[in-house]
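Handout, tutorial session.
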Amino acid sequence: MSTKKADRLQVKIGGMSCSFCTTTIKKAVGRMDGVNDVHVSLAHEEALIEYDPAQQTPTTLRDTLRQLGYTVRDPDKVKAFEEQQAELQHARLLLMWAASFTFVTLGIMIARWTGIQQVWFRPVMIVLALTTVFIPGLHILVMAIQSLRRNILNQHVLLEFGAFAGIIGGTIGLFNPQFPAADFFAVATFITTYHLLSGWTSLLVRTRASEAVSKLLDLQPATARLVHSDGHEQEVKIEAIKPGDKVRVRPGEAVPVDGRVVSGSSAVNESLVTGEPIPIEKSKGDEVIGGSLNQTGSLIVEVTKVGEEAFLAQIARQIEEARAMKPNILVIVDRVLQWYVPGVLAFVGLAILIWTLGAFLVTGQMDVIRAIFAALAVLVMGYPCALGMASPLAMIRGGGEAARKGILMRSGEVFQVFKDVRQIVIDKTGTLTQGKPVVVDVISVDSNDSTKVLRLAASAEQASEHPLARAILESAKADDLSLAESKGFSASPGKGIVATVEGLTIQVGSPQWLAETEKVSAKIEEQVVAQANLARTVVAVAADGVLIGLIAIADAVKSDAKAAIQGLRDAGIEPVMLTGDNWHTAKAVAAEVGIKEVFAQVLPGEKAAKVRELQTEGFRVAMVGDGINDAPALTQADVGIAIGAGTDIAIESADVVLVGERLTAVVDAFYIGRSSYRKTVQNLWLAFTFNGIGVPLAVSGLVPPIWAMVAMVASVSTVLANSFGGQLIPKRAQREPEIATVSLNIPTIHCNGCLETIQTALSHHPQIQSSEGDVEQKTVSVTFKRNGFTEDDIHEAITKVGHVVGREV
């Protein structure tokens, strides 16, 4: 018996403020006929719905989301961001209206408390309460009704219970003096406004994060340069490309499609796709992968795969699958609300029971008025105003601290789950390494010195655009070498170049190419093998047909990679390397940075599967990456961390974005997340203290609703003070730390590159104000603040990047 394959619908959703919203959507949509599974991401504000097309349609599913009170956004990145900005402005407008009604209500209440009575006070308060609930708060009412229709209890339902308790209590008070009508109406206004404030704060946090992320993305639509049969070129959308079409890919452009080269040759960087860091020579007949970067020459590519068969489409499908299988996270606030909402309703029932049946058993008659008053008071007191602010305020503080360190936290879940992470999967190319080839060693042959070898090679390569040639030129520039004029330059694609420098015929290329014209000694062959064992690419240099040296080029490890790995291990997180590159290179890099567990030659889909495997073993897993091939794993991980200099698809798949390339920021993100979670827990305890006392007291029927407003003000003020009190101390009241300068002898400094490495390592410490060095004298002078930072910390920072610290100068 055959089963029909289920369809998947991916929808961008606006209006979600917390993970209770995600739960509401899951329950409402998941209960529909034909819906097999629903995954909702608050961080990415989207839902992935798996359904049977024979029973449901995309239109019906989208309409259900709209009925719940959420907006369905345009899938286009630019339009979706514009819609989010519009939602924020609309939420702010509603909040301003509600706040103005609240201030007027508060003014009237203060006047009444001071003995001022006016005949128009009561009708104005009625109008203000009804206006606040039914105009600025109308969308909350709609969401509450739709949730109740589906037997879902959430924060919107609780708010409306409290607001309508206020309206009903006020209305009864118009006819029964036992009910303080003004107080009840005021409460309806107050708690609706606080709810709007909570929603606006949450939306503000997410919009700011989205705005920061959008600046890292290429928001232009994907296009390709179609080459017609007459040679005319036309820029068209990727969707318009079909197999057999020919597209031109210019230097510096991303290859837009999977295809085969039919004309031209170039070095293509496939690191973001395969993990291989060194560009690969491509010429006629070679396959190219969509998403790789064309670096040197112009290519004409015949399209071989489009649609679901294309590499990028497969990645998108793997991301969907990872999102569907990602473990759900219910943040602590909503975990508490799962019990709190039914608890409040239970106290309502208890109040009615006590003052009807209980009173009848004790006194022989039921006190219906007191029962109604107590029930309404419980509903009013039961709305936890500060609860909605507890998590967003902690996020604002933690997010602000993270932003100052170049870290973007995209959702509140990150703050909670990061503290539980015990394994972190790290990509190699572009994450642990720089993601580009650099010269790491120059080996001279016979009487030639390494400086001469590098200078002649760089002089010959001046006209080359090859990535390896650029690495040689950058190394010569870093060593301040004076380059000679190059003449008669010619290149053999995939082999090397020939040029005349200072009357010498200089060849720079692969050792195999040079071996065709000159005998390579066994000793040199051993050197080539030794460098290959260190995961390095070897370039041979010959002068007038005689080999004079070898240049070792590799994807160098980032200066702070080793420190970042040690920092993670110190935090109790075990790093695991996961790369598409070969085992040889992966093991070499892992040994250099201190990673013990390595998985190499892993395909993009297999990366996500490996993360999932670790999760099934009971671990909370984080993933750090930057490439297209990392995106499914970033999505699958409990915390996906993208390098901001990476690809759009990786950034969009992540929960945390590192704006720069500083890898130690991962450690900073962990500690910020853990600290912010603790602050959230503190805020929750403070928020529930007032409600935990007020709700049981309200059952007595002796607590007037005005105490609900007092509890609101007190709880919100306390949460605010706890969230930001530490930042309210004036800086001038704090003692300025002592400024000190130390000069150190570093005998291992050999070139400007060594000095730059040391200065980069020192710059990662905020206490260090400046550092200067002298390559010839082999000294470094460091100016720093002595606020818990010492010379030993400077020594440690320098030794971590492989240098030796001598005596102080």
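The second record follows below. Compare its token runs with those of the first.
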Amino acid sequence: MTASNSAKKFALAAVVLAVLVAPASVLLAQPAPEVQKNLELFQLDKKYAGDYRSYADGRFNLNDLPAYQPQQAVSGWIKIHGAATLAQGKLARYWEEGFARFHPDTHFSYFLPAAEVALTPLYYHQADISLVHELGFYDILPYERALNSTPLRIAAFTGSFDMAGYAPAYKIIVNRDNPLAKITIDQLDGVFGAARDGGWVGTAWRIDLARGKEKNIRLWGQLGLTGEWANQPIKAHGYCMRDPAGETFSDRVLKGSDKWNEKLIIYGPYFDRGGKALSIEEQLAEAVGADKYSIAFTLGEAASPKVKLLSIAPGASGDYVEPTADSVQSRKYPFYREGAMYLNLRPNGKLRPLVEEFIRYVLSRDGQSQVQRDGRYLPLNRDTTESQLQIVNAIAAAPTQAAKVGPLKDENAEASLLTQARRAIAIAKRGKETRYPPDQFDLSDLPAYKPKAILDGWIRIHGLNYIETASLRKYWEEAFAKVQPGIKISWFLPTSAVGYSALYYDTADLLLASERGFSDSLAYEKIMGRKPFAIESHTGSFDLPGWANTPVIIVNIKNPLTKISMEELDGVFGAERNGGWQGTTWHPEYKRGPEKNIRTWGQLGLTGEWADKRINVYGFNLRYNTSTGFSDIILKGSGKFNEDLIATGNYALPNGKRVAGGDFLPRAVSSDLHAIAFTNYSEEYNQPGMKVLDLAEKKGGPYVKLSIENARNRAYPMASYNSFMMNATPGTPMNPLVKEFLNFILSREGQTEVQRDGKHLPLTAEIIARERAKLDKGWGNEP
């Protein structure tokens, strides 16, 4: 390639990088001011702009890494999606330029908005490689459900030592006056964690990861400190579980259980009254620096002179390692992090030759030299590159075959896929049921559908699998075709967990789902600059598991309590908190103290032998949407649960039998006189030894009894619902095909099909009037 041609090619590549950083639909989006302001809290520090680097080029000797040796000549395009940091530095460009020296006929396209896109580029077949940091539970789950496999994972670089956004290593900080100098990860579990009934490895629930409360560490003396320190309580600080930093720390320390010390003080980013942006890391350093009995886990630089870093040893070992850039790069420091390339294997279990060659390049001295040249992430060491190359070589050498979990046996991945398979069987069986008759509700007060125009074209709908498993998808499509025969619908309904990616990738016009989680919402807001536009479609089922059945509170049948308020539920199931989340916005004003905890039945008004009996709390696993939704409604989105909560995940036994939390909770409450649980109402799982409490928004009432009518009209405070969501693009009209379809859904004809299916509940006239007004108004500024 001549110098002139090379210059032209890389100039073009720069244009490709700029243009392909977002699909066309993203370029149309105008930011909503309130969302844009909140996003400032998640943007990387401006000091990282330009040629900023965190260490000198050549600091790490990479001579022991293998030089890149092309295995085959390749050409064509590679599509890479993922973390914005690849473009905010120069690593993406350096890798492209370096690879092109060996393979001049290769080209790259990028979509690098945020690491939160996770695996969506793969199960939507938008990219060859998704290059991101750690994955969360709901990053992995939709991939497994959509593709019935697990992705291939190859480490690409080690995270930075202390650069925010660049997968910085976890550090443990204490006050500078604290005599403690080191701590083990098992001890950190004792400090930050609580008793648990198991833990997650990916999406596989492992009951062997359980531990009891005897391993809790709550005093400094339990860590070996003496004198005035021995009996002082440890004041723990950290990230909220909803923050990916909290979830990943849980994976690394708490065995993925999310069972936290209930006195953990959690933080979120926010603007103070003066308008100054306060990062979590700044707040952690300030809190620990101001209180000598405090400890925190952080991703920050620990630059404050009032705090110090602890050396860390893995497990219970005595192999303590001081946190430095060198110990993180060598991976001797156990809290290093990494960025990884996630890929789909082809149907024959192989990698595309061009992609395989690029991976080999990244894992070579040449590729890792570009990481060091960029100076933000840290290059891989020899042991890591060799282990990753072994995976690539195993794939290349393996016989051609369909691969679901890659060439190397992964028992956790296999367990997860078995659980998903058993779940699918249970759902398919329930999909044939009808829980109430087609005339259960009088729908004559709902407005009839009146077409505003007879149109032609296609609508793409993704998301909720339950309308496919049952008959609602079919009923809606057939009924709509009678009034709009020219409008066709294509459906992709593997799970609502595909989330907002269906919208920001412009693969769907509508997403049918419940409100999505933190990372999914943050990804959407980073890419689109606003929140999605949503129209409710139906209320959840009254009692059919999986169909958004009604959340309820149950107690033992012998318990004299008959009713409870939302505020009291916060006291029973929650714990002191420093704030809470509403969507992706942190609200310090949601804080509450430990004095509002309710731990005995007497605090709920029971007398006699009940008064001093401790309340035994049960609930769904804290990673499930049910628990997240409960936290949103009851705990102000804090994720701060009573640490004695007994929670389990769904899993499959070796004999193939499925263990479901929905079944476990009624049985547990029926056998425990002093138990209370949040669960979803189900005639299938109900036990004679339990009862459902009446609920009220506020203490004193009015209290509402559980009934199918109260669930439908939303008088019952915790009823569920689903919505159709779409991209809101002010300045452009709403898609008329979509608008006609939603008008049909919000009609007597559309809700009649919901009732005909007999699982979800039809919307009321009041809800339809509200949603129609929203639909007619649109998103504003429409031409």
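Points raised in discussion: Confidence is low (pLDDT under 50) at residues 1-30.
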